[in-house]
Structure formats: structure tokens, C-alpha cells
Design a protein that fits this description.
By secondary structure, the chain is an alpha+beta fold. The chain has three domains: 119 residues, DnaJ domain (Helix Hairpins, Orthogonal Bundle), CATH 1.10.287; 67 residues, HSP40/DNAj peptide-binding domain (Sandwich), CATH 2.60.260; 88 residues, HSP40/DNAj peptide-binding domain, CATH 2.60.260. Helices cover 29% and strands 23% of the residues. The strands form four sheets. The chain has a four-stranded mixed β-sheet. Strands 1-5-4 form a three-stranded mixed β-sheet. It has a two-stranded antiparallel ribbon with strand order 2-3. Strand 2 and strand 3 form a beta hairpin. The longest helix has 17 residues. The termini are far apart.
């Protein structure tokens, strides 16, 4: 028969009754031995590797393996219809082979009397002869995308330049969803290496650091400078958040290092309110300390208070 392919089980060196684990083990052994990276320039090893990959693609899929066991190479043809093939087999079983005496039954499909069963199946359902090799999936492509911190919070579309092995370049618009974290993954299906089916592009998102904001899960953290007067007196102050300016009411007598929680101002996923913004107060004292009136007022307010009295090592 023209265009035959080697038996898939023989390609992996396993029996037709091999278990899925045995098939996987055999495939891994072959790929380790014949992988092109281990055999640079060895065309025979490369061909063995491709054949094993094609065989594993079929035999590792329970449905495709079942069809292959039932119909052989014919099941690998494009457009194969199992139900039509079974109907043909039932019709065939009523006759005694493909001798010249009854070959005219299949005359509408060609030379039935001199054609094997697999050839007829491939002509009936594949539009021609059996493919000379199993279709191979395209390879996946891995890469990284760097985006600013605030863009990672809000979501952004970035251009991605992809160059094929043939040197052809194309640009894709990659939509990065809101709230993606550093190290997050994106899969662009069907945009990878050419094949049947084509491979994917697997992107790792790298989020740049921000000078004031840090991410903690779905919460955000930031340090907020306030004057000593604001901290002591309390009252509203404006705070810039990734989602706009928010009026925050400081409690009177706020202390340095005190943490205020701004609910709903953290990471937002799928357009919904998620984490919070945790603001740590950074109380700034006046740079000039020679104000006698101020010092006297502080001394009167604090008296003999010693904030370190209970701190022992």
C-alpha cells in the first residue's frame, strides 16, 4: 500500500496490550535517547524522535487509540468517519474478500479487487491515500512580558513581537488581565509553532517594582508621610491610591508606624473590589528644633513620660 506508516505500537516498542503507563514510559525513554538536542545533526535520530512523538500523540489519547486499534492506519486520515467505516465493514463482512469475482461491488470507489481494506477506508473517508506520517502538533513558545506595577493592577494590552524559525515576524496584541501578579502565566492558544494543531505561546508576566507601593497577596501596602501636627490633631487628609484620591480621617494622636486600612483600595480582580490598601503612617517631625515655645509645649504635654520604660531586653 502506498503511503504507509509504521505500526504505532512498533514505533514505541510496546505491545498492542500495553498499559497507558507502559506507553508513557516507552515514549519518555525514546525521547530522552533520540531528542534532537542530544543528537545534533543526526537526521536518523531526529526522524525516530518525530515518529515516536506522532505515535505517542495517538496512543496516549484513549479515543484515538481505540479507533486505531479498530481501523488501523485508516483512522489517521483527515475526515475519517468511524460510523461510516463500521457500516462499510458490516457490508464487507457479507462478502468473501476482494476477489475479481465480487470486486464490482466497490467499483464506484476504484480498484476494489486489488485494494486492501485500509486503502479503501482511506479513500472512502480520507479523500485519498493514507497520510505518510502522523500529524504533529506545533511546539509551544515560551517568553516573558515586563509591565509597570500600576498597569498590572489595572490591566493592559501590550504588543508582542513573535518571530518564526523562518525569520518571519508578526505582532500580537496581548491582553494582560487586571490584578495579575509577578510571575503570573498567560497562554495564547494556537499562536505558537506551526503544526496540527499549532502550538501555544506561554508567557510569564514580570511586574516592575513601584517606588511607593508593594503587593501583599491581594492587599497593597504603602508608607504615608504625615506631619507631626496632622498626626497629633487628626482629621482628614487626601491619600493617592491606584484607584484615585481618597479622603482619610486620621485618628487624633496617631502614632508613627500606625497602620490604617483602606478597604477595597487594594488589588481588584475581574473588575471587582478585592484586597485593601494598608497605609503605614510615617510621622515627620519639624526639621528645625529651635522653637522654644514648641519645645516648652511638648515638655508640658509629655511631662515625665518615658516611652521606653517598659521596654527591656
Amino acid at each position: 500500500m502506498r503511503g504507509t506508516v509504521k505500526d504505532l505500537y512498533q514505533s514505541l516498542g510496546v505491545s498492542r496490550t500495553a498499559s497507558p503507563d507502559e506507553i508513557k514510559k516507552a515514549y519518555r525513554q525514546l525521547t530522552r535517547k533520540y531528542h534532537p538536542d542530544r543528537n545534533p545533526g543526526d537526521k536518523a535520530a531526529e526522524e525516530t524522535f518525530k515518529t515516536a512523538s506522532g505515535a505517542y500523540e495517538v496512543l496516549s489519547d484513549p479515543d484515538r487509540r481505540k479507533l486505531y486499534d479498530e481501523f488501523g492506519e485508516a483512522s489517521l486520515t483527515q475526515g475519517f468517519d468511524a460510523e461510516r467505516a463500521r457500516a462499510y465493514k458490516r457490508a464487507r463482512s457479507r462478502y468473501t474478500g476482494f476477489s475479481e469475482g465480487n470486486g464490482n461491488i466497490f467499483d464506484s470507489y476504484g480498484e476494489a479487487s486489488s485494494t486492501s481494506f485500509d486503502d479503501l477506508l482511506s479513500r472512502l473517508f480520507g479523500g485519498g491515500r493514507v497520510r505518510s506520517e502522523v500529524a504533529r502538533a506545533g511546539s509551544d513558545i515560551q517568553g516573558e512580558v515586563n509591565i509597570p506595577f500600576l498597569d498590572a493592577l489595572a490591566g493592559v494590552t501590550v504588543p508582542l513581537r513573535v518571530e518564526s524559525q523562518a525569520g518571519q515576524a508578526r505582532t500580537l496584541d496581548v491582553k494582560v488581565p487586571p490584578g495579575v501578579a509577578d510571575g503570573g502565566k498567560l497562554r495564547l492558544r494556537g499562536q505558537g509553532g506551526a503544526g496540527d494543531p499549532p502550538g501555544d505561546i506561554l508567557l510569564t508576566i514580570r511586574v516592575q517594582e513601584h517606588p511607593y507601593l508593594q503587593r501583599d497577596g491581594n492587599d497593597l501596602r504603602m508608607s504615608l508621610p504625615v506631619t507631626a501636627l496632622e498626626a497629633y490633631r487628626g482629621g482628614p487628609i487626601d491619600v493617592d491610591t491606584p484607584w484615585g484620591t481618597v479622603a482619610v480621617r486620621l485618628p487624633p494622636g496617631s502614632q508613627n508606624g500606625q497602620v490604617l486600612r483602606l478597604r477595597g483600595q487594594g488589588v481588584r480582580l475581574h473588575g471587582k473590589t478585592g484586597g485593601d490598601l494598608l497605609v503605614t503612617l510615617d510621622v515627620r517631625l519639624p526639621k528645625e528644633s529651635g522653637h522654644a515655645g514648641l519645645l516648652a509645649a511638648l515638655a508640658d504635654l509629655q511631662g515625665d513620660e518615658n516611652p521606653r520604660a517598659e521596654r527591656t531586653l
